[in-house]
Amino acid sequence: MDLKQLEYFVTIVNEGNITAAAKRLHMSQPPLSNHMKLLENEIGCILFERGSRHIELTEAGRILYSKAISILDLSKFTLQELEAYKKGIFGTLRIGVVSSVGNIFLNNLIVPFHELNHDIHYEIFEGNTYELLEQLKANSLDIAIIRTPFALSSFKYINILKEHMIAIGNESFFRNCISSDSVTLSELSAMPILLYRRWESIISSILEQKKLQWDIFCKSDDARTTVFWSNAGLGVGIVPESAKGFADSSKTVIKNISDITFDSTISAVYNLDAYNSSTAKQFLKYISNIYSIKSND
Questions:
Q1: Tell me: the pLDDT tens digits for 184-193?
Q2: Quick one: fold of 75-161+265-290?
């Protein structure tokens, strides 16, 4: 099995059939079909069922496709890093970022780091925490800037910033609140709640202890979505404080949750078992030097 075979296989899957893949690869169909037969013979598995119009991946094919994507990405990133080295460019940082920390990541980390390291280039990948941890595990990223809670597994982390969860919604939802600048868990139970899904189990546990129940109107995987639904007047969003930048101040108000503190910590996570480039190590050292909250090193 070589990289070229994996590239052929991935192209076939992406194009949906061998004919279209051959056209994309600028080669004729018979040699491409032959490469796939050789690959199947080598690994001892049928990778896809060949139909008249489309191919259908087998379970073995789905496994190989997932791994092939990671292998080809790693190969591409390695070549890019070597090419940058030849050109005298210090390197490229591959960083995954969750949407809710975008401004903090840019202004607090990248801008000051760039002032010290003008020759470093960047590739930014956006996704939710689970997606970025999978990419980190597959070595498609050097570092992921995500927020707690997350499963540590084999990852190492440096905590950057701890922030509170807040409530965002149309002012009409908060008319009966006692305080003008905060809301209680009990008061929230009378409102349609827009919930950042990753906090569901934690919040459910707290509400159970307090014998309260919320009306969860919508759950989502992105803090921006929660705030956008709040802007539309559909409910009260429970999001990290840094997500308030997405709120429309003409349509919403922001309230602290007074009777309990929900904390979410923004962390720089990396894979200790993977190869870490000198560029990645330099960035992690920079973070360690300016943020001294907590690390699990």
A1: 999 999 999 9
A2: D-Maltodextrin-Binding Protein; domain 2 (3.40.190)
